[in-house]
Design goal:
alpha+beta, four-stranded mixed beta sheet, three-stranded antiparallel beta sheet, binds glutathione, Glutathione_S-Trfase, glutathione transferase activity, Glutathione-S-Trfase_C_sf, GST_Omega/GSH, transferase
Length: about 325
C-alpha cells in the first residue's frame, strides 16, 4: 500500500497518527463525466462523449467501490461497449498490480502496464495522491475520466442509453432527494463505516465507528422488514451501493475489520434482501469471493500480519429470498 507524490511511488500505509487513530478517506481527484453528447457533467471538463469501445474500466473484484461500477456495467448492458481489466487481489508494497492469476486477475489488457500507479502517471506524470480503483479510462484522450465510483455509476446509469437502448433508471428524478439522504447515512456508517472500524488504530476511533455501523444495520433491518428495497418497491442505486458492502460483510468485515456485534445472516430481512440482489440477473457473476477474501486478509498486514486466510462459513447465496411478496 502506498501513494504517488509528484508522480513518484512511495510505499506508506494510511496515516492515522494525525487523526487520533481514525481512518480518513481522501477524495478522488479525477472527476470528469461521460455524457451522451460530450458536454461537461456536474464537475470536470467536457469532451467525454459516450461512444462504444472508447472507455476502459480498471477494477479490483475485491473492492466494494469498484464492484458498484461492474454491477452497473452489467445492469445497463454495457459489457460490449466498455472493456475491463482486473487487478491482482494482493495489494502490497507496489499497490495494485496487474499480475495475472487463475481466479480472475486479467493483467492490464489495454496499456500493458505492470502497476495501477502507472495508469495514473500516464494520465498525469506529476500525480500526487492515492492510487485507487475503480479507474475509468478514455482510450481516445489517453487519460482518466474518473476515479470516483459514485459518479461512474451515474454516468453508466444514463450516458450510454442511446447506444444500448437500455433505459433502466436507477437514479430516477423523483427519488433523487430521498436517495441522497439514505446514501449519505449508508456511506458514512456502513460503506465507509466498516473501513473506519477495520483501519482504526485506537480503541476510541474503533468505538466511534462500530456503534453507528450496527445502529444503521438495525435501522436497515427494520426498514427492509416493511419495504422490499430502500426506496420502497423500486431498486435504485442506493440498493446497489449498499449491496457491495453487505455481500462482503460475513466473509471479511465481521472478522477482519472487527465488525462483529452481529453477522449479516443474523438479520433475516437484510440477509434475504442481499440474496435477492445477489440473484439479480448479471450480478452473481460480478461477485468473486476468492478475490474478496484473499485481498483483505493478505494485503492488510498491519491487521493480519501472518496473512492467514480464514476458512469462513459457507453462505447459501442461492437460497430462495422470498422477497417477491413484499411491497
Ligand atoms: N472514492 C473512491 C474510493 C475507492 C477506493 O478507496 N478503493 C480502494 C480499494 S477498495 C483502493 O483502491 N485503495 C487503495 C489505496 O487507498 O491506496 C471510489 O469510491 O471510487
Amino acid at each position: 500500500m502506498g501513494l504517488l507524490v509528484d508522480g513518484i511511488w512511495h510505499d506508506t500505509w494510511y496515516d492515522t497518527k494525525s487523526t487520533g487513530g481514525a481512518f480518513k478517506r481522501s477524495a478522488a481527484q479525477f472527476r470528469n463525466w461521460i455524457t451522451a453528447d460530450g458536454s461537461a457533467g456536474p464537475s470536470g471538463r467536457d469532451g467525454f462523449k459516450a461512444e462504444s469501445g472508447r472507455y476502459h474500466l480498471y477494477v479490483s473484484l475485491a473492492c466494494p467501490w469498484a464492484h458498484r461500477t461492474l454491477i452497473f456495467r452489467e445492469l445497463k448492458d454495457l459489457s460490449a461497449h466498455i472493456s475491463v481489466s482486473v487487478v491482482n487481489p494482493d495489494m502490497l508494497d507496489k499497490g495494485w498490480t496487474f499480475e495475472k492469476d487463475d481466479h480472475g486477475a486479467t493483467g492490464d489488457t489495454l496499456l500493458g502496464k505492470e502497476f495501477a500507479h502507472q495508469i495514473y502517471t500516464t494520465a498525469d506524470p506529476k500525480y500526487s495522491g492515492r492510487v485507487t480503483v475503480p479507474i475509468l479510462w478514455d482510450k481516445q484522450q489517453n487519460t482518466v475520466v474518473s476515479n470516483e465510483s459514485s459518479e461512474i455509476i451515474r454516468m453508466f446509469n444514463a450516458a450510454f442509453d442511446g447506444i444500448t437502448g437500455n433505459t433502466l433508471d436507477f437514479w430516477p428524478e423523483e427519488l433523487r432527494e430521498p436517495i441522497e439522504t439514505v446514501n449519505e447515512r449508508i456511506y458514512h456508517q456502513v460503506n465507509n463505516g466498516v473501513y473506519k472500524c477495520g483501519f482504526a488504530t485506537s480503541q476510541d476511533a474503533y468505538d466511534t465507528a462500530v456503534h453507528p455501523l450496527f445502529d444503521t444495520l438495525d435501522w436497515l433491518e427494520d426498514l427492509l422488514s416493511q419495504h422490499r428495497y430502500l426506496m420502497g418497491n423500486r431498486v435504485t442505486e442506493a440498493d446497489w451501493r449498499l449491496f457491495t458492502t453487505l455481500v462482503r460483510f460475513d466473509p471479511v468485515y465481521h472478522l477482519h475489520f472487527k465488525c462483529n456485534k452481529k453477522r449479516l445472516i443474523d438479520y433475516p430481512n437484510l440477509w434475504a434482501y442481499t440474496r435477492e440482489l445477489y440473484q439479480w440477473p448479471g450480478v452473481a457473476q460480478t461477485v468473486n469471493f476468492d478475490h474478496i477474501v484473499r485481498h483483505y486478509h493478505y494485503s492488510h498486514d498491519t491487521i493480519n500480519p501472518h496473512r492467514i486466510l480464514p476458512v469462513n462459513p459457507v453462505l447459501e447465496w442461492d437460497l430462495p429470498h422470498g422477497r417477491d411478496q413484499m411491497v
